[in-house]
């Protein structure tokens, strides 16, 4: 079992192998899915989801012949995602509906809006806040 302290040690670019994110393939705890997918940042924090990481995860389990399925259901920290291996080899990811409610992202805002103006070192920046399993700021 991978612990955050292991990920932090391995993620260090000077004393470990170095990485931005470590993607882990595990047996599922849910019988309705094919795999469990865990993601650690190099600081040891476990994150909920990464869309591009999910595509890499799918390619890995296919290339290592851990599955031959074209529709792969995967358990993540943020819920179940579906990976679709298309006929051209591309991999699509259904990560569910985006979360836009500030408290669900999480993002501090007095109310939900399409965009928010935030101050970054004295400069106003307009952004949209969304979560697809982890928080994102979309800048204009």
From TrEMBL:
EC numbers on record: 5.1.1.7
Amino-acid biosynthesis as UniProt keyword: yes
Phylogenetic lineage: Bacteria, Pseudomonadati, Pseudomonadota, Gammaproteobacteria, Pseudomonadales
Keyword Amino-acid biosynthesis attached: yes
Top EC class for this record: isomerase
Species whose genome carries this gene: Pseudomonas fluorescens
GO molecular function, one term: diaminopimelate epimerase activity
Record-stated family: Belongs to the diaminopimelate epimerase family.
NCBIfam families in UniProt: DapF (TIGR00652)
Keywords from the named record: Amino-acid biosynthesis, Cytoplasm, Isomerase, Lysine biosynthesis
Active site per the UniProt annotation: 50
Swiss-Prot/TrEMBL GO biological process terms: lysine biosynthetic process via diaminopimelate
Catalytic reaction(s) noted: (2S,6S)-2,6-diaminopimelate = meso-2,6-diaminopimelate
Protein name, per record: Diaminopimelate epimerase
Matching InterPro entries: DAP_epimerase_AS (IPR018510), DAP_epimerase_DapF (IPR001653)
Pathway as given in its UniProt record: Amino-acid biosynthesis; L-lysine biosynthesis via DAP pathway; DL-2,6-diaminopimelate from LL-2,6-diaminopimelate: step 1/1
Top-rank taxon, per record: Bacteria
Gene Ontology cellular-component terms listed: cytosol
